[in-house]
Amino acid sequence: MRRSLLVLVSALALILTGARHADAIAAPQILTGILNKMERAHQDLKSMKAELIQQKTNTQIGITDNEFGQMIYKPASGKDKGKLRIDYVKPSKDTIAMVGEQVIYYQPRINQVFKSSIAKASKGKVGGYAQLVGLDGSVKSIAGNYNIEFVRDEQINGQMTTLLRLVPKSGGQFTRIELWVNQQSWLPAQWKMYERNGDHTVVTLKNMQVNANIPDAAFNVKIPGGTKVVDKI
Predict the structure, then answer these.
(1) Can you give the pLDDT at residue 88?
(2) Are strands 159-168 and 146-156 parallel, antiparallel or unpaired?
(3) Helices and strands: H and E segment counts in the chain
(4) Rounded distance, CA 58 to CA 196, Å?
(5) CATH at residue 71
(6) Number of domains within the chain
(7) pLDDT-based confidence at 7, cuts 50/70/90?
């Protein structure tokens, strides 16, 4: 859980791929239209609630760990910092919260809380996605960091989506990210992140509620007295 959640901590900077291509002429036009719709959806997004499923596969031993939780999210707006909180409900009861660059990761089972910054958490080869690509940050910032390819339209979990493939322009933990975008909301519905060691993580959002009323206080994590505080994981 520690490693898979840190994958979520350092990439969930980004908060938020049949035919391999359209033809050489149509593909760029299709992609431009998709990115424009995603940009408008991002501009209109004030908040989000969703159920979250996280599946981490260790390809070396052929095991997949499943985590289930609830996510709330508010993008940065003006002077207000971006906010994200995930409360896992099974098998762990861990909580991760990010407000701006600050990260809190509370593990009640071992009575420990990690408090630090996204930048510091990312230094120890933890890598990952402190912002889910396409959810946090404008499409312009995505295009600045990734080569983006339209793959196909695809139905997942009862919803029609557009599948994009993102390849980082510079080195990092991931060799590529596959991003499924809901064709009704034009917001991300699922990510699949491929690590350099062959492992991969799938994050799926279900029962999404867009622009629900979420008070800023909902992102505060209450830490009981006596909890051990660390700045390294």
Answers:
(1) 93
(2) antiparallel
(3) 4, 12
(4) 12
(5) 2.50.20.10
(6) 1
(7) low
